[in-house]
Amino acid sequence: MCSVAVSNDAECVFNKEDHSGPNHAVKLGVFIDEALSFIDNHAIPLDYVAVSSGPGSYTGLRIGVSMAKGICYGRGVKLLSVPTLELLCVPVLLHHEEIEDNALIVPMLDARRMEVYAEVFDRALRPVRGIHSDIVDENTYKEYLDKGPVYFFGNGAAKCMKTINHPNAHLIEDIEPLAKNMYPLAAKHVAQEKFEDVAYFVPFYLKDFVAKKPKKLL
User: Fold this and answer.
1) What is the DSSP letter of 196?
2) Comparing 25 with 173, which gets the higher pLDDT?
3) Is 153 left (phi over 0), alpha (psi -120 to 50) or beta?
4) I want to staple 116 with a disulfide (CB 3.0 to 4.6 A). Which of 44, 104, 156, 191 is the partner?
5) Would you say 114 and 163 are in contact if contact means Cβ atoms under 8 Å apart?
6) What is the per-residue pLDDT for 176?
7) What pLDDT digit, counting tens, does each position of 114-170 carry?
8) pTM for this prediction
């Protein structure tokens, strides 16, 4: 996914998306130029830049973070990082009122075959289990499913549902990590003054996560 958005007074006022594949090197610079032109033409002050911090592919994150840092240097603004798995949760929490109060939500990023990168949250977006590289079988999330409803989403979720095969397991389709959904998490970081060092910030590359996994998971 390649996307750029501008938020002003908690409202998304500009949005560009490309769903055709890993085209960040081609599309992202164009989208950013259009976004900055929109800001300047509408006299909107640029206060912060938020960027997806992963986990994700090396190339996509490297390009995205490099672009974000360039804007921060050029415009003299602060950098915010938004974890990709948390970003996936935003449209689920905002637009799926059917989710029970006691439910858990599990964003998943596809890692090929039956492996996903996943995290478990409650409905308040509090981590219940941190980011794991899960090789999914019928027991992977059983401890959570036996206690109540669990909602799975993201581009790694659909392939897992037949394997998980539990009455409390639910799939939410068409959830993607999009810039237009970053505002609530970015605003939270601003309120907490949780800014990144523009010179030294490094995103969460999947290759780094794989290198740190226990040998039995390699």
Assistant:
1) B
2) 173
3) beta
4) 156
5) yes
6) 95
7) 999 999 999 999 999 999 999 999 999 999 999 999 999 999 999 999 999 999 999
8) 0.91
19-49: per-residue pLDDT in tens?
Answer: 887 778 889 999 999 999 999 999 999 999 9
Going by C-beta distance under 8 Å and a sequence separation of 6 or more, which residues neighbour residue 8?
44
Half-sphere exposure (Cβ direction) of 119: Cα atoms closer than 13 Å:
18
* Bridge partner residues of 121 (DSSP): 105, 127
Residue 4: CA count within 13 A, CB half-sphere: 22
Write b or e for each residue in 6-30: b if 16 or more Cβ atoms lie within 10 A of its Cβ, otherwise e: bbeeeeeebebbbeeeeebeebbee
Q: Is the dihedral of CA 52, 97, 118, 25 positive or negative?
A: negative
The pLDDT of residue 65 is 95
The residue written with tokens 């804007």 in the block is 71
CB of 65 within 8 A of CB of 80? no
Residue 132, SS3? strand
User: Positive or negative CA dihedral for 91, 158, 144, 102?
Assistant: positive
Instruction: Yes or no: say if 72 and 78 are a contact pair by the CB < 8 Å rule.
Output: yes
